[in-house]
Amino acid sequence: MAAEKINQAHEHGQSRETVSYLKTSFLKWKPDYDSAAAEYSKAAVAFKNADAHTNNKTALEQAAMMLKEMGRLSDAVCLIEKASLMYVENGTPDTAALALDRAGRLMESQDLAKAVDLYQQAAGVFENEERLRQAVEMLGKASRLLVRQHRFEEAAESIQKEKNMYREIENFPTCFKKTIAQVLVHLHRNDFVAADKSIRQSYSLPGFSGSEDCVCLERLLQAFDQQDEDAVHQVTNSPLFKYMDNDYAKLALSLRVPGATKKKKLPAESSEGGARAGEVEPEEEDDEYAGGLC
C-alpha cells in the first residue's frame, strides 16, 4: 500500500501535466504556477499518506516555491512551516531552522509580525539543540523587527533573552551592546526605572563597569533624569550609538525626553550664517529714518 502511495506521489510531482504547467511556448508566455503548485501539494499529501518523510518535505518545498513565484507568500510560508515540522520529526532540526529563517526573510517585505514569529520559531529549534549562537542570531532578527513595529515591551523581553544567551556563551562585549539597545527601548517606553535596572544588572558582566558603553549609558540616564534634551542628543549622536544596527540607531536619534527643556546654544553652536565662534552679534540699532525723512 505504501509503495502504491509513493508511486502516486511521484506521478503527481513528475507527471507530464506538472512539467507542462511550468513550460512556456509561443502561445503560452507564462508558466501556470497555480496548477503546478496544486500538483505538488497532491504529491505532498500522497507522500504523507505513505509516510515517506523525505519525499514529502521535498514536495512541500517545491509547492512553496511555486506559490512564492505566484506572489502568494502567506501560502508559501504555511507550507514551509509544515516542511520544517517534518524536518524536526525526521531528525534534521538544522534544516528546519534554516527553512524557517528563509521564510522569515520572505515575509519581512509583507508581514513583519509573521516574520517575527518565524524567526522566534527558528530560534526555538536551535535552542532545543543547544546551538545558542545560531539561536541568538535568530532572536536578534526578531528583536529588531519588534523595534521596527514599536512593540517595545516585547522587544525588551526579546533583547533580554539575547543578553542571557550571549552571557552563557561568554560573549560579553555583545552583551554590552544589547544593554544599550535595551536601555533605548525602555526609554522609548518612558520607563526610566527599567532602563536603570538594565544597566545595574550589567555591572555583573566582566569588563562592563568603566567601559565606554557603561560611561555613555550613565551619561544618557543622567541627562534623561535631568530632562536635558540637549545632553541626551549629544550622547545619542556619539559614534557608539550611531554605528549600532540601523533599527537601534534610529531609536537613539528619535529619543525625546518628556517635559524636557533645551539649553540656549552658544554662538559657536548657532546655525550656519550666524555668529562664528568667539564673535558676538551686534545689537540692532534703531533706524531713526525708518518712518521716512518727514
UniProtKB/TrEMBL annotation:
Compartments annotated for it: namely: Membrane
SUPFAM superfamilies named in the record: TPR-like
Which terms in the Gene Ontology molecular function aspect does this entry carry? Answer: soluble NSF attachment protein activity; syntaxin binding
Regarding the membrane, this protein is recorded as: Peripheral membrane protein
Q: What InterPro entries has UniProt attached to this entry?
A: NSF_attach, TPR-like_helical_dom_sf
Q: Where is the composition biased (Acidic residues)?
A: 280-294
Top-level lineage group? Eukaryota
Instruction: Specify one Pfam family.
Output: SNAP
What UniProt keywords are attached to this protein's entry?
A: ER-Golgi transport, Membrane, Protein transport, Transport
Q: Where is this region: Disordered?
A: 260-294
Q: Which GO terms are recorded in the biological process aspect for this UniProt protein? A: intracellular protein transport; vesicle-mediated transport
GO cellular component terms, semicolon-separated:
SNARE complex; vacuolar membrane
Q: Which family does it belong to?
A: Belongs to the SNAP family.
Q: Which PANTHER family match?
A: GAMMA-SOLUBLE NSF ATTACHMENT PROTEIN, SOLUBLE NSF ATTACHMENT PROTEIN SNAP
- Protein name, as recorded: Gamma-soluble NSF attachment protein
